[in-house]
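Q: I'm writing up a methods section and want to include an example of the input and output format. Could you take the sequence below and give the corresponding predicted structure tokens, formatted cleanly so I can copy it straight into the document?
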Amino acid sequence: DAARRRRKLVDVNCDSCYAQCQNIENMEDNGYVDAAEYVDCAKVYENDNTGLVYYAGAICANSGKRIKVGLFTDEACSVYDSDVA
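A: Here is the clean output for your methods example:
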């Protein structure tokens, strides 16, 4: 109902909410990438001189409750490189 929606709005600090949204919006400019881009395995680094290639893909976090982006040494994202993490 309307009274319940008004109570929820009281708890929202629009100034900090806007600042958080701006931080998220500018993440790519600050060197971060959208993790959704790595749901499938994708090449993220290649050194032609050494032949070193890294791929990024989804992997379970240690807690088992989250998904994070991991670095792999194969294009199927099946060989996890724990030394780089």
